[in-house]
Amino acid sequence: MPRKRPSSRGSTRGHAAARRAISPRRIIALVSTCLLICSLLTAYGVYWNIYNKINQQSIDLDPFGDRPTRVDGVLNIMLIGSDVRSGDNADYGDAEGERPDTLAIAHISPEKGRATIVNIPRDSVVDMPACEPTDDKPGQDAHTAMIGEAMNNGGVQCLWGTVEQLTNVHIDHFVSVDFVGFKEMVDALGGVTMCIPEPIQDEKAGHLNLEAGEQTLDGEEALGYVRSRKGQGDGSDLSRIDRQQDFMGAMLQEVVNGDVLSSPGTLNSFLGSVADSLSTDDGLTVSTMGDIAVAMREVDLGDIEFVTVPNGPHPADPNRVAWSEPKSTQLWQSVASDEISDGKDDEGGGKGKGDKTPKVEPSTVSVEVLNGTDTPGLADEVSTGLAGMGFLPAGTGNPLGEAPEKSTVYHPPGKEAEAKAVASKLNSATTEENPALTDTLQLVVAYDWNGFKSSGGGGGADVEGKSAADAKTAC
After folding, report:
1. Residues 84-89: contacts with CB within 8 Å, 24+ apart?
2. How far is residue 281's CA from residue 296's CA, in Å, rounded to a whole number?
3. Cβ neighbours for 66, distance < 8 A, ≥ 6 positions apart
4. pLDDT digits 0-9 by tens, 285-308
5. Of 79, 114, 190, 340, which has the fewest Cβ atoms less than 10 A away?
6. How would you classify the pairing of strands 408-411 and 392-397?
7. DSSP label at residue 92
8. Which UniProt keywords apply (predicted)?
9. Whether 7 contacts 397, CB under 8 Å
10. Residue 422 near residue 428, CB atoms below 8 Å
11. Which fold has domain 14-340+466-470?
């Protein structure tokens, strides 16, 4: 090992998972949002009557041509919070048509024991494909507009095709719930406890009026909280998404830690409350739901991650959103190839399965890079790359003595988390303790060096995320 020295500067597989006894607690742990909670719990045969109330749609994606490649053993489910105002939803305004009030892709990776929910801002202005008319939708020509217009013009089928073409991610299923279903589901839980940091008043969100502090939100208050824009933060859809992610995490905690699963009556009420308000594709059958539940039975709340598509103000309208490049493409590539959790494994610096390692801020980590190869300038190149990720450069040079066979991040005692944070950014690296080091880490680049990862855990390059376990329910 190098000595301390002064720097020398220069779906389950085919939806056919083995069926075994299902732990209800683990089934719930899979669910990223209330939508997915409902769809998975209906896998119980005793709830066939509830399942049969769900509206199922036939989706034809042939008009969109070749679809993205599906990764074996992985599921991507499009989650929609519908803003339809017909029927019982008429109390929430008179807007015409139907658009996604909330839109996300739940990426479920059973083999990695993780689920990642990527939120797509409703204010995203994107290039949309042409969509054929349906029985109740006019269809659309190819044009540029806010992403929700695809659903309004061509229904879920058009939105599905649009999302696939924009992201190059293969979508396997969709789940949609409306306002009333969301509200009644929260009430069936007995409310969801949240820490409200500041008083909230928003007349446009159901006359929402919440005091600061720890509160248990009922269905009406919860709906107002997740829909509110003008009464909280900067009034943007992005800050609203951040609150929605917090609420979904808190809701998951409520389900896992409460009596929903132990009380048949509560569980029946929970499922029945949303069945009439839930829509799925006709491929999302009870059998498929059961397969998903079995495959993901070991997922914990800390392994359910929420991220948002990297974005910024649209050049033509600062009130709208444009996806940032290359970060958004990197994020979608990591989802499409099931590499989105690479930075969260045992060699990473995040909170992988069973890993209690705290999150490390790169700005607190100093790294000296030593070139153990005969490639000139490699140490400087790697040091510059780490600096671009926020780590503190602490010089470059060459190792004294023999270099390791594998690129290695050496760390002083007590700095293992920091070393894993650095290693998580590299395509090939291991970590090792060096008692001779005091504070600065030492990365020795070996002949196995093959660059930086294009995306870290929880999203594309430099995309921050939060887990369901991070939701703050107590003040």
Report:
1. 84/178, 87/180, 88/180, 89/178, 89/179, 89/180
2. 21
3. none
4. 766 766 665 555 556 777 888 899
5. 190
6. unpaired
7. G
8. Membrane, Transmembrane, Transmembrane helix
9. yes
10. no
11. Aminopeptidase (3.40.630)
Non-local CB neighbours of 272 within 8 Å, separated by 6+ positions: 50, 188
Please name which of 460, 444, 344 lies closest in space to residue 5, comparing C-alpha atoms.
444
Q: List C-alpha distances in Å: 94 to 91, 145, 152, 173, 205.
A: 8, 22, 15, 29, 14
Query: For residue 123, what are its two tokens?
Result: 């204010």
Task: For residue 429, give both structure tokens.
Answer: 């690296």
Cα separation, 362 vs 389, in Å, equals: 7
- 236 vs 230: CA distance, rounded Å: 8
Q: What confidence tier does 372 reach under pLDDT thresholds 50, 70, 90?
A: very high
- Chain region(s) in the chain for CATH 3.40.630.190: 14-340+466-470
Q: Is 127's pLDDT higher than 90?
A: yes
Query: What CATH number is given for 362-445 in this structure?
Result: 3.30.70
The span from the CA of 286 to the CA of 292, in Å, is 10
List all residues 6 or more positions away from 375 whose beta carbon is below 8 Å from its beta carbon: none
Cβ atoms of 163 and 328 closer than 8 Å? no
DSSP 272: H
Burial (CB count <10 Å: 0-12, 13-18, 19+), residue 106 = buried
Percent of the chain that is helix, strand, coil (3-state, to 5): 35, 25, 45
pLDDT digits (tens, 9 = 90+) for 79-104: 998 775 444 443 444 455 567 888 99
Burial status of residue 19 (CB atoms within 10 A of its CB: 0-12, 13-18, 19 or more): exposed
Q: Is 132 exposed, middle or buried (0-12, 13-18, 19+ CB in 10 A)?
A: middle
Instruction: Spell 176-188 as b/e; 16+ CB within 10 A means b.
Output: bbbbbbbbbbbbb
What is the pairing mode between strands 304-308 and 466-467? antiparallel
